[in-house]
Design goal:
two-stranded parallel sheet, globular, about 55% helix
Length: about 1500
């Protein structure tokens, strides 16, 4: 029975239209999601599927399935250029996310469906979709998936040269460049020379394009991409960057070439054909070489060869050294030509994949050396050097690292040889088997050169054999690594030695070094320091004075040196091996350290002559010395052995200790593993050292001691105190984290207090943790250690603890057991911790919401469990935690921010609501055991502050706040209800409340002018003037209490409804503010605040509350009757012209009074008057009412001016019944229904538009928005607008050429309505007073009056037509106020007289008759329509051309389908379509064979104009294939 009744009830409701509409309206208005941010509450949150058309909107809302559904069903979708960019950007981002290791199945699915959408768009919506260069947009968005789809042959898309240029000039994925080049090759039209030449120009200029923009992190990646796609060649640079001297003879030394070639394969002849054979040999040799180091070395040597490292000093051109390089690289020189053809052989041989790349001969390209140094990629740098396009600037070296790989260091050497020297003689030539062949210097003696070359050739042959044997016999990776390490060390040594020797030589010769040379010298000295630290050995040659002197001899001696070096390669190798094997032994030699100190002298003095007088006798080496040398500024040195301290003590008076430990303050970096070591060290410090010594100059060589200057004992004491503080802090922290209780006991016995600033603590933690060993411990082991440590601290009552030490204790120790079960059982005894420190910790942790510290002190301690003294039965004031007034003020004065300048609610996202909720419960529970009143009050203060942070936190729930409030009540904890509390209570109850508060106009003005204040602070009194809105002045917080906002009844419903609270907020924040003003100053404020309130109510979709405000507005309007506010926005005074009441159609159902009663006319500013004429001879009276007047007096109606935002929201969310109610409120406001109609069309709410058209007289003056306002193109949907009119009201729009005349006729009618107003204002001007006097003078002839009025009429009509009639008049042009009042009372009565009414009628009729005669003289009425039609077709703003120039193809098709052969494509439309980058519409109509509009292809004039326009366009001139 119940089931049947429910079904019957259901069907009754279902068939009741009113109830069904009400139910669905409630569904549509209901917000299913509760938003935390008020800005997220707006009508766009929920839309009907049928009302969703924007592709851009759907993509941004992730409605991909809806897009797919609409595409498959071929529904209308508005596709804008921006939406295509959005689609490709989202697809690109999705691809990146799906390719990451952490991608989910959802991301992969998203990528898949986006690709499906793209394919469907190309298949079903290509005409609407291909409105941009799709390839260009995909390239800009780095969308590889889109490019792969667009590359399908069925779409036949072409790459515009600008797209390729953009891809090169900005960072793109290398795959994008490859795809674009593939497109170009596949769709290449060999006949399109202009296109092909431009593509080639871009390729040649590609490196310049990549460097054109500002150098950033992407520039290097872009260059790498280019080199991965192109094989660049530089044939046209003419060796601009070479530093070779000009050769005096063009003949080459063929004998030397032949000798070198014999060493390779004996296949080289003195002709050009032999180059191919040599290239084959190169390939074979490279393929057989498996040693990475050898490969790197070959590349390096090749680059030296390519840069022509020879310097010829005589008339015979000898290429000995160059030949030697060629021999190593198996390259052949062309003996009949210059060596340019061989510059790139090495690159071609070493990069086997170059055959797959397109060879590009680059244009003139220069890269600044400073830019070049910014790049990181080794291969890229090598390629740029090989291309010879880096500008030579005598630059500095790149950053040097002792741990560089062989490739990295060979690149440094390559850079040095090419860009850091000015003379080729200074180049460093490195041979893996010849350490001393470091300078390729040519002598003035040719015989010596030949001898050297022969020797080198012989050695090279031996080396090649040895290398081949090694490659065949040694396949072990460790051996290769060892060889590499040896070679790197050898190369580093050669590099350091050569540059330093050169620099010292320049200094000795008094040669002035340039700035870059000085920088290089400093770089190499720093690198030398690294070298010595790594290998524990200096370079003996740099510290051997005899060698130093020899190095300054003449260059002729180099010949002998070179010969000796070449003959003794094996010995050198053996020596190097021995040196490497004996590094550890040498490191124990104090002499090495002394020589290292000399490196510092090299850096500071630039000389090998040591100024130190050091006695090495009886010195003993200690490893601590190298630890000191390795140390950086903030590094520490951990002392682990007592022997180190003993060594320091024994040598305390020696130069080495005084200089390195005392003078350079390295002793301050010492830290100790144990207190025993620390004590021992401090004893040494107090007994041995004088810390205030200002110098450490060396004494005599025999004494070995340094002379220390005297200093005051006070200064020495301060430095010792500083050392003690640093060391004690370290040992304390080190002991804490390692649970070393013995150390802590010792420190406690000394009364040491750990105290550091936060920044110092961070450094200390990082330093100490580097010394602790990482061990894997069980949870039980950790808990045991922590408990023992806590037990010790409880024994001493946390004596000698500071704020810093307690914070570290909590972070490092207590956090280890935070999640353990034992944590809640731990109790800490703070008996001996100073009360002030505890209070400071409590205050700081509360204000900063440091909950772990707060919980540890209050919950896990006994500090609040103080009992009364047994003897006195009173509390010991020294042991009571009680906040003073100043301490309490820190809580009260703490900032209480609620919203920002941008009207964003302040919510601390770092605060965890769950943690705050939990700690408050614990604090309340802890409160029960507090016996001291002072401590109780202090704890209450903390609880209230934490509660404030809870209600401010982002994720707090109503349930959490309600629970805490119940605990407050049960424990009698008072909470003050301030603006801060009420604001967040309202936010927690419903975000819509705070949205209203933030919607108040100018609510941020009181604090936004201050640069320091970013948020409104409830703890500050801003005290603005009355005109500046301050919420605290009007918000009555005592009414918005917790109970008022959250109180519930037995049914768990709120006692105070949303409506009641929002009405109270409106009353307080709106009307309390308005009531503070006197008339008429509040009127503008009322208008602004009311519109803001109405807008808010519409945003939250409370239309019922929206209409409730009408009664308030009407009451204010009625109260203003008889008052004359001047220049205010409220009320709005409008004319009885085209008002909704008079525009209601006779056929409208709204006239049925049985359904509704229409509003009566409200009170007007000027009452309808009558003119009565009475004769004395008879008793008859003739009455002429206002209806009999030709020009009626101005009648103004008071109404409310709804803001455009309010009108827009009404048209977005209201139904037709609600819209009618809105219209009836302003039923007598001029053109109010027209304004709503226009907005409904703009918002595409055609249900409202249709309702107004069926009930009101509306003049349709435009088919769509873009015709009258093309700037709104992106904000409207002109296709849907036009479709609505054409499909439903075609008869009313079938003559679009009459739209303009309709507007003119309306304006002419308005002019007549306002004529008396214009006339009266005209005569208030001083210059028109003579005419005014003539008009009011009864004796003035009627003809004169008519002439004055006729001239005035023509003048006012002209001003009205040019829209200057309402321009303000300057004050000095007006008559006095007293006189104007008189005129204002005289003129209305005067103009109502029959005489003037007749004159008005004559003037208006004459003007109308004159215009009719002009029209009749031109043509008959039927012909006039044709003339207007022809004019409209050529009008630049007609409905077709407006759509054409904006590229809306589907709108153009819609128009010509309803207006066949009424429009045509013009030159203007073609030109502006190109300017707007809408080539797609030209292509469409070029190929369109419709007979409804002229065809471009068949019109020679248009076709020629199209070709010329495209040919002159810099972007589209390359794509002319579609034009026949």
């Amino acid at each position: 029975m119940t089931s049947n009744y429910s079904e019957i009830l259901f069907w009754k409701i279902f068939h009741n239209k009113y109830l069904v509409d009400l139910i669905f309206k409630q569904i549509h208005c209901l917000e299913w999601i509760e938003y935390d941010d008020p800005q997220n509450i707006h009508p766009e949150n929920r839309k009907k599927f049928k009302d969703i058309h924007s592709l851009d909107w759907m993509i941004k809302k992730n409605l991909y399935q809806l897009i797919k559904c609409k595409l498959e069903s071929n529904d209308y979708i508005k596709i804008s250029k921006g939406s295509i960019t959005t689609l490709f950007s989202v697809l690109s981002k999705s691809r990146i996310e799906s390719s990451s290791s952490s991608s989910s199945a959802t991301t992969t699915t998203t990528t898949s469906i986006l690709k499906e959408i793209l394919i469907l768009l190309l298949k079903n919506k290509r005409i609407e979709f291909e409105i941009v260069d799709l390839i260009h947009v995909a390239t800009k968005c780095n969308c590889i998936d889109a490019l792969e789809i667009l590359g399908n042959q069925e779409y036949s898309l072409k790459v515009n040269p600008s797209t390729l240029e953009y891809a090169i000039a900005t960072y793109s994925d290398p795959q994008i460049l490859q795809i674009l080049l593939k497109f170009i090759n596949n769709n290449n039209d060999k006949n399109n020379n202009i296109y092909n030449m431009e593509i080639q120009r871009i390729k040649k200029n590609s490196i310049n394009l990549a460097l054109k923009s500002e150098i950033n992190e992407f520039t290097e990646k872009q260059l790498i991409s280019l080199f991965s796609v192109f094989d660049f060649k530089n044939y046209n640079n003419n060796n601009n960057n070479n530093n070779n001297n000009n050769n005096n003879n063009n003949d080459n030394n063929n004998n030397n070439n032949n000798n070198n070639n014999n060493n390779n394969n004996n296949n080289n002849n003195n002709n050009n054909n032999n180059n191919n054979n040599n290239n084959n040999n190169n390939n074979n040799n490279n393929n057989n070489n498996n040693n990475d180091y050898e490969q790197s070395l070959k590349k390096f040597k090749s680059s030296n060869n390519n840069n022509n490292n020879n310097n010829n000093n005589n008339n015979n051109n000898n290429n000995n050294n160059n030949n030697n390089n060629n021999n190593n690289n198996n390259n052949n020189n062309n003996n009949n030509n210059n060596n340019n053809n061989n510059n790139n052989n090495n690159n071609n041989n070493n990069n086997n994949n170059n055959n797959n790349k397109e060879i590009i001969e680059i244009n003139k390209t220069i890269i600044e050396y400073s830019t070049f140094l910014l790049f990181k990629d080794i291969e890229l740098k090598n390629k740029l050097i090989d291309l010879d396009i880096v500008l030579r600037e005598n630059g500095i070296l790149p950053d040097l690292s002792i741990n560089s790989t062989i490739d990295e260091f060979l690149l440094v050497l390559k850079i040095y040889n090419n860009y850091c020297i000015t003379n080729d003689n200074d180049k460093i030539i490195f041979n893996s088997d010849n350490n001393n062949n470091n300078n390729n210097n040519n002598n003035n003696n040719n015989n010596n050169n030949n001898n050297n070359n022969n020797n080198n050739n012989n050695n090279n042959n031996n080396n090649n054999n040895n290398n081949n044997d090694n490659n065949n016999n040694n396949n072990n990776d460790n051996n290769n690594n060892n060889n590499n390490d040896k070679s790197i060390k050898k190369l580093q040594k050669l590099f350091i030695k050569t540059i330093i020797m050169k620099s010292l030589s320049l200094n000795d010769c008094s040669t002035k070094s340039n700035k870059n040379h000085q920088i290089i010298y400093k770089q190499i000295i720093d690198f030398y320091l690294q070298y010595t630290l790594k290998y524990k050995k200096t370079i003996q040659e740099l510290h051997n004075h005899n060698n130093n002197n020899n190095n300054n001899n003449n260059n002729n001696n180099n010949n002998n040196n070179n010969n000796n070096n070449n003959n003794n390669n094996n010995n050198n190798n053996n020596n190097n091996n021995n040196n490497n094997n004996n590094n550890n032994n040498n490191s124990n030699n104090i002499g090495e350290f002394i020589e290292f100190f000399k490196i510092l002298e090299l850096k500071e003095n630039g000389s090998l002559e040591s100024k130190l007088s050091i006695d090495l006798e009886n010195w003993e080496w200690n490893p601590i010395l190298f630890e000191i040398l390795k140390k950086k500024d903030n590094d520490i040195i951990v002392i682990k052995e007592k022997s180190i301290l003993d060594w320091i003590s024994e040598n305390n008076d020696k130069w080495i200790v005084q200089s390195f430990l005392i003078e350079k303050n390295n002793i301050l970096s010492f830290r100790f593993e144990s207190v025993e070591l620390l004590s021992h060290f401090l004893n040494i410090c107090e007994s041995k050292f004088n810390f205030s010594s200002s110098s450490c100059s060396g004494g005599s060589s025999n004494s070995g001691s340094s002379g220390n200057s005297s200093s005051s004992s006070g200064s020495s004491t301060e430095k010792l105190k500083k050392i003690k503080k640093l060391l004690y802090n370290y040992i304390w922290y080190y002991s804490i984290i390692n649970f070393n209780i013995d150390n802590l006991k010792y420190l406690n016995s000394l009364g040491i207090i750990f105290e550091e600033e936060d920044s110092e603590i961070l450094v200390l933690k990082s330093l100490a943790k580097t010394e602790t060993t990482t061990t894997t411990e069980t949870t039980t082991t950790t808990e045991t250690k922590v408990l023992k440590l806590i037990e010790y601290f409880n024994e001493i009552g946390f004596k000698n603890f500071s704020k810093s030490s307690f914070k570290l204790f909590q972070n490092e120790i207590m956090n280890q057991i935070k999640n353990s079960k034992i944590y809640s059982t731990i109790k800490l005894n703070f008996e001996n911790m100073e009360v002030d420190i505890i209070k400071e910790l409590l205050i700081e942790s509360t204000l900063s919401v440091d909950l772990p510290i707060l919980e540890l002190i209050i919950i896990n301690s006994t500090i609040f469990d103080k009992k009364k003294e047994e003897t006195t039965n009173q509390m010991n004031p020294k042991k009571v935690i009680s906040f003073s007034n100043s301490e309490s003020d820190r809580f009260y004065d703490s900032p209480r921010w609620i919203f920002s300048k941008t009207k964003v609610i302040y919510q601390n996202e770092k605060s965890n609501a769950n943690e705050l909720h939990s700690i408050i419960i614990k604090l309340i529970e802890r409160l029960k055991s507090v016996t001291s009143i002072e401590s109780y009050q202090s704890l209450i203060l903390i609880i209230k502050f934490i509660f404030e942070k809870l209600i401010q936190s982002k994720k707090v729930t109503k349930e959490q706040v309600l629970e805490i409030h119940k605990l407050f009540q049960s424990n009698s904890i008072p909470i003050k209800h301030s603006l801060y509390h009420s604001f967040y209570y309202l936010q927690i109850r419903d975000t819509k409340f705070t949205k209203f508060i933030l919607s108040i106009p100018r609510i941020t003005v009181c604090f936004s002018n201050s640069s320091r204040e970013r948020y409104y602070n409830c703890s500050i009194e801003y005290q603005p003037c009355q005109a500046v809105y301050d919420i605290i002045d009007y918000f009555e917080a005592d009414k918005f209490t917790f109970d008022f906002i959250f109180a519930e009844n037995n049914s768990a419903d709120y006692i105070n409804s949303f409506d009641k609270i929002i009405k109270m907020l409106i009353s307080q924040l709106f009307f309390n503010y308005i009531n503070a003003f006197e008339f008429p100053y509040y009127l503008d404020e009322f208008h602004e605040f009311m519109n803001s309130t109405l807008e808010y109510l519409l945003l939250i979709k409370r239309i019922d509350l929206f209409f409730d405000q009408f009664e308030i507005i009407q009451n204010h309007i009625d109260n203003l009757y008889g008052k004359e506010p001047i220049a205010s926005t409220f009320p709005l005074k409008t004319y009885l012209y085209q008002v909704p009441a008079f525009s209601l159609l006779s056929t409208s159902k709204l006239r049925d009074e049985s359904i509704r009663k229409l509003p009566l006319m409200p009170l007007t500013e000027q009452q309808l008057t009558t003119t009565t004429t009475t004769t004395t001879t008879t008793t008859t009276t003739t009455t002429k009412t206002q209806q009999d007047l030709f020009i009626k007096p101005v009648v103004l109606i008071n109404s409310f001016d709804f803001s455009p935002k309010v009108i827009s929201l009404c048209c977005k969310i209201m139904n037709t019944n609600e819209i009618q109610r809105l219209i009836e409120f302003n039923f007598y406001q001029s053109a109010f229904h027209s304004a709503i109609f226009d907005e409904s069309i703009f918002k595409n709410n055609f249900e409202i538009s249709k309702f107004i058209l069926e009930n009101y007289e509306i003049t349709i003056s435009s088919l769509n928005t873009i015709t009258s306002a093309p700037q709104l193109f992106n904000n409207c949907d002109s296709y849907l607008e036009s479709k609505f009119f054409l499909e439903n009201y075609f008869e009313r729009v079938k003559k679009p050429f009459k739209f303009q005349s309709m507007v003119f006729n309306q304006s002419k009618e308005l002019f007549k309505v306002r004529f008396l107003e214009f006339l009266q204002s005209h005569f208030l001007k001083i210059k028109n007073q003579d005419n005014y006097e003539k008009l009011i003078n009864p004796s003035t002839p009627s003809d004169i009056k008519k002439l004055i009025l006729k001239e005035t009429y023509n003048f006012l009509l002209h001003q009205f037509e040019i829209d200057e009639i309402d321009s303000p008049t300057k004050e000095h042009e007006l008559i006095s106020i007293e006189k104007s009042k008189v005129q204002s009372s005289v003129l209305p009565k005067l103009f109502n007289q029959s005489e003037y009414q007749n004159l008005f009628k004559i003037i208006f009729n004459e003007d109308t008759l004159q215009k009719q005669q002009q029209q009749q003289q031109q043509q008959q009425q039927q012909d006039d329509d044709e003339e207007l039609k022809n004019q409209y077709i050529n009008d630049k703003n007609n409905i077709f051309i407006s759509a054409f120039v904006l590229g809306i193809v589907h709108l153009c098709n819609l128009i010509i389908s309803y207006y066949p052969n009424q429009f045509k494509i013009t030159k203007y439309s073609i030109t502006h379509a190109i300017e707007n980058n809408n080539i797609h519409i030209l292509k469409y109509f070029y190929n369109n064979n419709s007979n409804k509009i002229n065809n471009i292809k068949n019109d020679p004039i248009l076709l020629n104009h199209l070709k010329i326009s495209l040919s002159n366009d810099k972007f589209h001139k390359y794509d002319l294939d579609w034009i026949s």
